Amino acid sequence: MSDIAHTPRQVADAYVDDLIDLDPVTGTFLGVPEAHSKLPDLSPAGLDAVAALARRTLERLDAAEREPAADSDVERRCARLLRERLTAELAVHDADEHLRAVANLGSPVHHVREVFTITPAETDEDWAAIAARLRAVPAAFAGYRETLALGLERKLHGGPRPTETFIGQLAEWAGWFGEFTAAGPDALRDELTAAAAAADAATLELRDWMRDVYRPAVEGAPNVVGRERYARWSRYYNGTDLDLDEAYAYGWSEFHRLLAEMKQEAEKILPGAATPWVALAHLDEHGRHIEGVEEVRQWLQDLMDEAIETLDGTHFELAERVRKVESCIAPAGSAAAPYYTEPSVDFSRPGRTWLPTMGQTRFPVYDLVSTWYHEGVPGHHLQLAQWAHVAGDLSRYQATVGIVSANAEGWALYAERLMDELGHLTDAETRIGYLDAQMMRACRVIVDIGMHLELEIPADSPFHPGERWTPELAQEFFGAHSSRPADFVESELTRYLSIPGQAIGYKLGERAWLLGRANARAAHGDAFDAKAWHMAALSQGSLGLDDLVDELSKL
């Protein structure tokens, strides 16, 4: 792109084009065919190139905002998002956070593996691109290792606990690329086998380096990040500078509110239960279940299809291509939490929900219903697919790579609450499951902020009042106030230590969506149209939390 002035949307979309050249994983998520055979440069030089692109784009945005066309609401919102996102990303990069990017999900290596699960694999041409991408895996992993090695040299260490978990994941991934290519065409069998073998070998080589070099070097390093680093990451994931002490207090207020509601539902399930989680444990054994992996995948598909039929035309107006969403089983070695992958911008790849089975074949219904309202419909899928649907009216940036985590996660948690408000959680079993999921998000705010800032546990807490948070106390607290099994709880705490500031965005994002709706309802009074508001809200693209409340209140 030349350096002459353009509109903010043109600057934003030019940034997306340039970013795809540097990060083909992003290109595949957006459905760009030319990206499917490539992987990004994960070395320090490659990551510096992405940062340099952000700096150039901010300079171009400065010029574009001086143009008369920048005064429209559409251009203003795009410029607002682009500036906030690139500024937050540069703050993280300039603090060398990429030099210690070790995590149990969401790391550059996780993105490399995940992209293969969404790369087109229908034709021989598709598989030829996959073979080329597989051949790029060793260089990508070597670049990542170079980045971590520079971090060690500068004494910028990843956390020991995320490191240990990541090593275990790499070991579990051994042979995964070979298994993945088993579905490829016979005409490319030799090429695919050789490329997959090289990718599998690179996985084990990285595992060995992490185990033999990186792990000893970071032994004894802190797992928590402290207030300064946490504030930087919180800005990155939430799109605003939060008052962290106020957010921590809000987490506790939600904890107490939800606990009271959970006790009421627990009494209906198991009268006299000592805690709501005793009643939930009873449901684990005696509640409704789905037996079988394929059976649960189909059950979740039916749940989403039913939600679309019920909501479309009543509370939403959905384009036909937004109505399609697929239920999938996550590949082995994933983190424990379910997740969603958005459709490509042209919808050639639909939105998909992913369930990690963790080796299980029996699945409690109470734990699935509100979770799939969150991951699928009306949660992530309706928002992110709608963004893709209106990308031409916004910009590709606003609909895709400019996503603010707390905006999306906040909408998905709001969607769970909306289904409760609309009467879709009618029995005690599914409603306590919903409240348990809400409680998990309140606990995330408490322990994520609490342990990274080493805050004091309040005097009115039922758990270790007056003590300072540690990761060990956080895991104990989370486990005591969640129906999730021990391996899930352990995976979650490792996640919070790996990506500080992200987990709080669910509850704080939900609060922003609720406040924006309340403000809009107050402004319109009896004329407030919830369906129209939902569609306008879902069609404005991504925004940070403060900007989100401002824009939602005006709809």
TrEMBL record:
This is DUF885 domain-containing protein. It holds the Pfam family DUF885. PANTHER family: DUF885 DOMAIN-CONTAINING PROTEIN (PTHR33361:SF2), GLR0591 PROTEIN (PTHR33361).
